[in-house]
Design goal:
The complex is a heterodimer of chains A (323) and B (252).
Chain A lengths: L1 H5 L1 H20 L2 H26 L8 H17 L4 H23 L5 H19 L10 E2 L11 H28 L1 H11 L1 H6 L4 H27 L1 E2 L1 H4 L2 H14 L5 H19 L7 H15 L3 H9 L9
Antiparallel strand pairs in A: 1-2
Helix pairs in contact in A: 2-3, 2-7, 3-7, 3-10, 3-12, 3-13, 4-5, 4-10, 5-10, 7-8, 7-10, 8-10, 12-13, 12-14, 12-15, 13-15
Chain B lengths: L2 E12 L2 E12 L3 E5 L6 H8 L7 E6 L2 E2 L5 H7 L1 E3 L12 H11 L6 H14 L15 H14 L4 E5 L7 H16 L3 E5 L3 H7 L2 E6 L2 E6 L1 H5 L2 H8 L4 H10 L1
Parallel strand pairs in B: 3-8, 3-9, 6-7, 7-8
Antiparallel strand pairs in B: 1-2, 1-4, 4-5, 9-10
The chains are: A mainly alpha (323), B alpha/beta (252).
């Protein structure tokens, strides 16, 4: 009974995402599937960022580097070495995790704004590196050889498969987020978020805990990158490492509520909805990113805890359900 | 009597400031050691050195027969050293229970979450905060936050507890409660070093007292010896014979 209640916080997020997966399946509409894919991708990325931002309290402005780097590595093996998409996703996730491990050792000793600045620098440095790295196609990037799709029953089938893999990755991101949140490791991360010095005095080995949080937050973005570039059929440096996408992820996590499992889902959903409206509106279509900036500003000023955090503060009895 | 902590010739400088000069003492298991001295005497610096926040330039710190001079503060915690802070450091957005669980989970016993929940309940009961377990730590008042600091430290099941001015800012009835609490912690077999400005309290609970002044150890002894020590009185009140001396000089 007690165990069951501990996992109540995962129930609502799983149901929301399950609904989003079933919506295009039930309607059988391809454009719904594309929309759903975009939202699921945003949820998976935002939930991963939340492990670092929400639980550990470290702001990363360059989290998209893991998506781009993992994606590049995975696509390289799928396209040039003839690996299956499954193996490609695996190697993408592992290489992003490794990158995070090495970066973590180097920059996680920085705190606050300095860490945030370092993450921007890393994203830009990686973009410049890939731009000049011939194995990955340099500035032209890589275009998927369409014969690759044949192994999956043609392009249409490959795209359908991609959607289900995306759904699987999103569920994995949620479960990972929940497990971290409810574990002893997660308690240590939250202690670091609240007061790193006090946490260390209490015995939390902050350097190790932060590094692992960074690694865990990087693996799924790496996998999502491989899948997205596989589905897209090509990858270029500016598509793989867009700085503004990192900031959009921050807005999603902040909007929904950092440090909760449900928050990034609500945030990703709301943000993608808003974005969909803005890019099609004649007035806002060119200044869509400025609107995101204003939204971020308003959140930070008025509801720093995000939508879920705000609800939890108003209605304490929801604390257990809205984990 | 086994020595739990041995501080040997510890010296700490901050730039040109000599914060600690060859501080040396042995602390037997089960005692309460009072650490007193005027503001800026180096008391909290000594705590930080013992606790591994910043390692000393010279000297050694031996804890349970291991040299911990350069060990990190989290290593100290895992070996059984816990402390409270002079300026309370609650984890504001976590509940009172979660705060205490952090202490239990990452302290000496490295408890699992389930075990830590039980420990937290027991310790919160002891410090009389059980009713506030589900409240956010940030919403407590100062006296409660001090007790939370104490609870977090105790949940780690330490051998040695460093208390940094747990009585400061409390009213007299709260002081009475806290002193009783310190005494019953000692009865559990936990060795304590306490920094304190409330003289009556520190004199009544300490087995031994060390006095620091400008980073130097100017006196050490039982509470009675300390209260009659001229150097100590001078450090706190100025030279007691100053008036006499001045009168004599005038006569000459």
């Amino acid at each position: 009974m007690k165990n069951w209640r501990n996992h109540l916080g995962l129930l609502v997020p799983l149901l929301v995402v399950a609904g989003m997966v079933l919506w295009p399946v039930a309607t059988g509409n391809l454009s719904n599937r594309e929309n759903s894919f975009t939202i699921l991708k945003a949820i998976a990325l935002a939930s991963s960022l939340n492990i670092l931002l929400g639980y550990t309290g470290y702001v990363s402005f360059g989290h998209i580097v893991f998506y781009g780097f993992g994606g590049y590595v995975g696509l390289y093996f799928v396209n040039e070495q003839g690996w299956s998409i499954w193996a490609g996703i695996l190697v993408g996730g592992i290489s992003s995790g490794l990158l995070a491990f090495l970066l973590g050792k180097a920059i996680l000793r920085l705190r606050g704004a300095y860490f945030a600045l370092a993450t921007i620098g890393i994203n830009e440095a990686m973009k410049a590196f890939v731009n000049n790295f011939d194995l990955f196609g340099g500035p032209i990037g890589m275009t998927l050889n369409f014969s690759v799709y044949r192994a999956y029953g043609g392009a249409a089938e490959a795209l359908r498969l991609s959607f289900y893999i995306m759904a699987g990755l999103t569920f994995a991101a949620l479960i990972l987020s929940h497990l971290v949140r409810t574990s002893k490791f997660g308690l240590g991360l939250q202690a670091i978020r609240e007061n790193e010095d006090a946490a260390e005095v209490m015995g939390v080995v902050a350097p190790d805990a932060k590094t692992w949080a960074y690694v865990l937050s990087a693996i799924i973005p790496g996998m999502v990158g491989v899948l997205f570039f596989f589905k897209n059929g090509n990858v270029e440096p500016h598509v793989a490492f867009p700085l503004h996408a990192s900031i959009e992820l921050l807005v999603m996590v902040m909007l929904g509520g950092q440090g909760t499992v449900l928050g990034p889902i609500i945030g990703a959903f709301a943000y993608q909805g808003m974005r969909g409206f803005l890019v099609t509106s004649p007035i806002f279509k060119d200044i869509q990113l400025s609107v995101s900036g204003v939204v971020l500003l308003l959140i930070v000023l008025f509801i720093p805890a995000g939508a879920i955090g705000w609800l939890r503060q108003r209605i304490p009895s929801l604390r257990r359900v809205l984990a | 009597m086994t020595v739990l902590l041995s501080v040997q010739g510890v010296t700490k400088r901050f730039g040109g400031l000599q914060a600690l000069t060859h501080v040396t003492f042995d602390l037997p298991e089960g005692q309460i050691l009072g650490l007193i001295g005027p503001n800026g005497a180096g008391k909290t610096t000594l705590f930080n050195a013992i606790n591994g926040i910043y390692p000393p330039e010279e000297g050694r710190i031996i804890f349970r027969e291991k040299d911990v001079t350069t060990a990190k503060t989290y290593d100290h915690a895992r070996m059984g050293m816990a402390r409270t802070h002079q300026i309370v450091q609650p984890l504001n957005d976590l509940t009172v229970r979660e705060n205490v669980m952090v202490g239990a989970c990452f302290g000496r016993e490295n408890q699992s979450l389930g075990h830590a929940t039980d420990t937290a309940a027991e310790v919160l009961n002891f410090v009389e905060l059980a009713a506030r377990s589900d409240q956010l730590a940030g919403s407590l008042n100062v006296a409660q936050k001090k007790r939370l600091e104490m609870a977090r430290a105790l949940a780690a099941r330490p051998y040695l507890l460093l208390l940094d001015e747990v009585l400061a800012g409390l009213n007299s009835s709260e002081i009475g409660n806290m002193v009783e609490m310190v005494k019953s912690i000692r009865e559990r077999g936990i060795t304590i070093i306490m920094i304190e400005h409330v003289m009556k309290a520190v004199m009544s609970v300490s087995d031994r007292i060390i006095v620091l002044d400008y980073g130097e150890q100017i006196a050490e002894g039982t509470p009675e010896e300390i209260s009659n020590n001229e150097k100590v009185i001078e450090a706190y009140l100025g030279d007691p014979k100053l008036a006499e001396k001045l009168l004599r000089e005038q006569e000459d």
